[in-house]
Specification:
By secondary structure, this protein is mainly α. The chain has one helix at residues 2-44, and strands at 48-49, 63-64. The chain is built from one helix and two strands. The chain has a two-stranded parallel sheet.
Length: 73
């Protein structure tokens, strides 16, 4: 019995580590899906005029821009 004790402890610790990593991946999946939902809702929103100062919170925000070309390359 004593001969099997060390491999049993290592096996139990290994299973505990793998289970905790699997649960972490499930939490990460929820976080990632929430982030992707936020990006998709931003992309689908109505465009707004381009402000003079752009800040990072405007990521994936559609904007309206107007202008003319000069004809030069």
């Amino acid at each position: 019995m004593r001969r099997y004790l060390f491999p049993l402890i290592v096996g139990i610790l290994g299973c505990a580590i793998l289970i905790s990593l699997g649960l972490w991946q499930l939490d990460r999946l929820k976080w990632k899906q929430a982030m992707l939902d936020q990006i998709e809702s931003r992309i689908a929103s109505a465009p707004v005029p381009l402000p003079a100062a752009v800040d990072p919170s405007m990521k994936y925000q559609p904007v309206l821009v107007s202008g003319t070309t000069t004809g030069q390359e």
